[in-house]
């Protein structure tokens, strides 16, 4: 990277940030929560304030496949055959990524583990490095509240801006505030699909919460974003 193209104030800010990160305690976190619970909204704040790297397993898989790494090739072979990517591959990808400099002080793991078996394999891998999961943040929201959140959501496809019929409506119904272009509903943003996903989540992931019960902090994720963020900060003190 040519640093001569970077503004001086941006460089100074980055140096200050890195110096502050040197004094941050290590944290290895797992975020658990059903679709629409707000994990994605809180992840950037958790990552930035605690100097952690964000590991979303879907992103890790796509990056490994695109880079044609050994694990990426294994994953692509499974996907091309219509099979599920094995837990061993996913844990291997996590192991590879936590070696990176940005993960020096820990990570925020989002989307994994989804089952107790996955949690056990993750624990074994971390234990081999003398590490473990420190906190599990459980973003708890009543199913009906999630149905209300998701089914009322409208999206501007080009920008990703999202609106909600009740909680954050556009200035003019059905169109984006910035461009005036039509808003759309995602095909999965319907009550039937969501209830199916919630049923699978509760069946698979509730036991994971029990597996980590000594390290779980329940976050009341049905509150406004600022209140949720404050709960998260207190949980990580």
From TrEMBL:
Residue span, Adenylate kinase active site lid domain: 153-188
Stretches assigned to coiled coil: none
Top EC class of this enzyme: transferase
Reactions mediated catalytically: AMP + ATP = 2 ADP
Top-level lineage group: Eukaryota
Transmembrane spans: none
One of the record's GO molecular function terms: AMP kinase activity
Keyword terms, alphabetized: Kinase, Nucleotide-binding, Transferase
Enzyme Commission numbers on file: 2.7.4.3
CDD domains in alphabetical order: ADK
Record-linked NCBIfam families: adk, PRK00279.1-3
Family designation: Belongs to the adenylate kinase family.
Role noted for this protein: Catalyzes the reversible transfer of the terminal phosphate group between ATP and AMP. Plays an important role in cellular energy homeostasis and in adenine nucleotide metabolism.
PANTHER family on file: NUCLEOTIDE KINASE
Protein name: adenylate kinase
Lineage, highest ranks first: Eukaryota, Viridiplantae, Chlorophyta, core chlorophytes, Trebouxiophyceae
